[in-house]
Specification:
single chain; about 100 residues; alpha+beta; two-stranded antiparallel sheet; about 35% helix; about 10% strand; binds zinc ion
């Protein structure tokens, strides 16, 4: 079984258990299953692409606003955006898993 993001159930559970807060801005994530669209604190999956790390470390949860702000930008480019500057999102403030991702890359 995979969910609508193509992520297997076991992996989704592992990632959801680990990331209760946005890996970027640290707000508490909500499911909002009953709401259409993407509220800013909705839990969304973010795919990283580092083949040196296990699969589960390449999938993290972030909030709807970080996800839509980042889009397809490289993390370092995104950190320079007004959005990140305003919210103080940078390589020092992101969750450990993102720091690990950036170090390994
Ligand atoms: Zn966020």
């Amino acid at each position: 079984m995979t969910n609508s993001w193509g992520i297997p159930d076991w992996l989704e559970k592992k990632v959801r258990d680990r990331d209760k807060f946005c890996v970027y801005c640290h707000i508490e994530l909500k499911e909002h299953l009953d709401i259409k669209g993407t509220p800013k604190d909705k839990a969304t999956f973010e795919h990283l692409t580092n083949e040196n790390l296990p699969l589960e470390d390449n999938i993290v949860m972030c909030c709807g606003s970080c996800n839509s702000s980042r889009g397809a930008k490289e993390l370092l480019d995104w950190f320079n955006s007004d959005y990140c500057k305003k919210k103080n999102i940078n390589k020092e403030t992101v969750a450990e898993i993102i720091k690990k991702y950036m170090e390994e890359k």
